Amino acid sequence: MSVFQAPRGTYDLLPPDSATYLAVREAIAAPLRNSGYGYVETPGFENVELFARGVGESTDIVTKEMYAFETKGGDRLALRPEGTASVLRAALEASLHKQGVLPVKLWYSGSYYRYEKPQKGRYRHFSQVGAEAIGAEDPALDAELIILADQAYRSLGLRQFRILLNSLGDKECRPVYREKLQEFLRGLDLDEDTRRRVEINPLRVLDDKRPEVQRQLTGAPSLRESLCEACRAYHQEVRELLTEEGVSFTDDEKLVRGLDYYTRTTFEFVHDGLGSQSAVGGGGRYDGLSEMIGGPALPSVGWALGVDRTVLALEAEGVRLDLPAPTSVFAVPLGEQARRVLFGVVTQLRRKGVAADFAYGGRGLKGAMKVANRSGARYAIVAGERDLAEGIVQLKDMESGEQSPVPLSAVVTEIEARLS
Ligand code: HAM
What we know:
Belongs to the class-II aminoacyl-tRNA synthetase family. By secondary structure, the protein is an alpha+beta fold. The chain is 39% helix and 21% strand. The chain folds into two domains: 17-165 and 245-317, Bira Bifunctional Protein, Domain 2 (BirA Bifunctional Protein, domain 2); 329-419, 3-Layer(aba) Sandwich (Rossmann fold).
């Protein structure tokens, strides 16, 4: 029988590369933790209706890409394609919005699932770290989130990314614009699929990447010029706050995003080294989502950054993260008695918080030293019967190659001192 393979559109995270993924998650989470966001975790699946209503019946995510299924008990569920609807559902269910000051600020990290056509940077199982600030309408909150994402990417050493920024208007001005746009689009020479989109979700047509469609879009009514006064002022304030904090962005009137819940501010982080799947993260304001899923009016804003694509962006820029070696000390016992003694030393080191590992499987000195080398450990402890008879172990500095005898009783404190 041949070995099973990971399902199409998925891949495994394995050491040593998996360490980079963990570091990326951590780097994105750090500025959030530092800015009042609390950690939230929700189930990997939800009632399918939550996404249908929240993300939007007309979106590709809901119509084509959702892993929806019926359980043996007859529940209609879907693997989560995104995090915002779930996080808001959880906050509403626990009445977090009634328990303190608003906004409720939450961050999350996890797996998401979309049945997309796989290609580099586009997977059926992928990972996001996200943040949602629920229940406040304040341009400074939109700016805060964009600044924190920018800070996260910069802390990873990324430079070749750009921020695209737009405003999609609100429930006052967007319907008016939508109608104006529809009228314009109905007069164009479009294929049947696109004509259908004109009727269901005309703003998405602006985002069509095909040149023959883009060519026809010159002269389309401008979204920016259709914004009502309140939306215009709000957007201007977000832009000014970003500029004041030194975060540069590009105004992109065509940035519509693939989820229906957005109102006002929308933004995307794109990386220039990634080819067609260039969006490393995105988000925006979703002032109406709470009501769409049965809650009270709770204007909110958030983003999600793709971990997989952020790792690809690091590769594209040739950035290597400065990750600490997973092991600081590697113990190499020579003989049965040494095995027991050094196993004890390794256990003590670990209890003191020193990352330590052990040559298992009774290899010879040469083989074991090779493993010690590969582990990246700074120090190796080597001991045979003769050393133990003298009450010592050999402590080898793997960087300089220097080796010196250390009393067995002092080896843990000696290593701690040298590593500190
Ligand atoms: P999204 O733009 O659909 O937004 O996804 C955010 C990020 O997740 C993308 O920029 C990309 O990096 C990553 N991503 C999405 N799909 C895939 C895929 N198939 N393979 C690899 N990476 C992928 C959202 O999900 C919204 N919930 C963001 C948000 C939060 N808006 C407000 N709050």
